[in-house]
Amino acid sequence: MLSGMIRLSVMYPATPGSKFDWNYYLGKHLELSRRLLTPRGLMRTEIDRGIGSFPPGAPPPYHAVGHLFFRTMDDLQTALAATPPSSSPTSRITQRPQRGADQRSGRLASRRIGDGDL
């Protein structure tokens, strides 16, 4: 991650019986989010696909985690203000990470899907 950038992570829980439409997410949803948020400061996106957890063999807690990167907190706030409220039963949780901490600890086993994979 570039120094000084703000990252918003959107997590899609993999609850028992839930399904995730990857074709829709990587197609229409990603296109729409980029079209709406790029003029409001979106710099790049990254997507993690959950493939497992710990202990080894455990199912992933999330189908996907989408990361949206903005230059400033003001850009992020502008982008959030421009998005309609979600109709899904989710909540927004804000966390300010400690800089310099080991970001690898506790990380989910995942597959990163970059812009080149779309």
Number of strands: 4
Low-confidence stretches: 98-112, 114-118
CATH level 3 topology: Alpha-Beta Plaits
Q: How many independent structural domains?
A: 1
The main β sheet shows up as:
4 strands, antiparallel
- How far apart the termini lie comes to 20 Å
Describe, in plain words, how this protein is organized in 3D.
The chain is an alpha+beta fold and about 120 residues long. The protein has one domain (about 5-85, about 105-115): 2-Layer Sandwich (Alpha-Beta Plaits). It is about 20% helix and about 30% strand. A four-stranded antiparallel sheet has the order 1-3-2-4. The longest helix is centred in the N-terminal third of the chain and has 16 residues, at about 20-35. The protein starts with 5 loop residues before the first strand and ends in a 5-residue tail after the last strand. About 10% of the residues are buried. The model is unreliable at about 100-110 and about 115-118 (pLDDT under 50).
